[in-house]
């Protein structure tokens, strides 16, 4: 026996409840879909057989209606010929056929009601099947997304990546140290031609020194002459 034992079980089923209690929701939804599709094929085949049976009964009803007319005609003919006994017998036969026809019509009505209910159940089953397929697609997308996230997380927390990044850090620190040594080595060293500002500053200093020198030299000469 499958997940569903009867068509009514499927129509009245709650997919959320079924999936909530399943260990593997994806596997369960696939089984549910397969069960629904198989049931749908079976129900449709049964409906075809039932419709064929109803058509046969309808043909029998039409035949009986024709028989009733014939017995009624024969009863009238017997009365015309003065055969009341035959007329009554013909009417009795007509009544018997009429009862059989009415019984068949009741069967046809019951079959039609059953087909209407079956058609309604098929529509509900198709809706359930569409819902189940939609759920299966959503679960499949969620599963792929979760697997992708898991692979990403595994890469993020992969120790090999951490080791590689640590080696990069070590190399960067070593380069920083080498660059620092080179910059320290160049400190205090002037290479190349002095800049324009440096030359102008040197001229100003020379002028001040020369001026002080001339002033001091003049004072010394004046003091010497005075003595």
From TrEMBL:
Protein name: Phage-shock protein
Family matches, as PANTHER family: MEMBRANE-ASSOCIATED PROTEIN VIPP1, CHLOROPLASTIC (PTHR31088), PHAGE SHOCK PROTEIN A (PTHR31088:SF6)
GO annotation, cellular component aspect: cytosol
UniProt xrefs under Pfam families: PspA_IM30
GO BP, one annotated term: phage shock
Organism from which the protein derives: Gluconobacter oxydans
Recorded coiled-coil stretches: 33-60, 87-181
Family matches, as NCBIfam families: phageshock_pspA
Family membership noted in the UniProt record: Belongs to the PspA/Vipp/IM30 family.
The entry's keywords: Coiled coil
Keyword Transmembrane helix carried by entry: no
InterPro entries named in the record: Phageshock_PspA, PspA_VIPP1
């Amino acid at each position: 026996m499958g997940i569903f034992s009867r068509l009514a079980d499927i129509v009245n089923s709650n997919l959320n409840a079924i999936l909530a209690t399943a260990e593997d929701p994806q596997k369960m939804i696939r089984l549910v879909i397969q069960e629904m599709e198989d049931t749908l094929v079976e129900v449709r085949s049964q409906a075809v057989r039932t419709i064929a049976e109803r058509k046969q009964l309808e043909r029998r009803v039409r035949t009986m209606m024709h028989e009733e007319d014939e017995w009624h005609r024969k009863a009238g003919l017997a009365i015309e010929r003065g055969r009341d006994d035959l007329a009554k017998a013909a009417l009795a036969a007509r009544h018997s056929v009429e009862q059989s026809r009415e019984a068949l019509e009741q069967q046809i009505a019951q079959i039609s009601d059953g087909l209407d209910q079956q058609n309604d159940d098929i529509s509900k089953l198709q809706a359930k099947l569409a819902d189940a397929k939609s759920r299966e697609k959503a679960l499949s997308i969620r599963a792929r997304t979760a697997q992708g996230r898991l692979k990403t997380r595994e890469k993020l927390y992969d120790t090999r990546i951490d080791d590689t990044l640590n080696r990069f850090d070590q190399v960067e620190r070593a380069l920083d140290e080498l660059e620092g040594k080179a910059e320290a080595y160049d400190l205090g060293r002037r290479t190349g031609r002095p800049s324009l500002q440096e030359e102008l500053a040197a001229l100003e200093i020379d002028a001040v020194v020369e001026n002080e020198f001339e002033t001091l030299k003049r004072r010394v000469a004046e003091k010497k002459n005075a003595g």
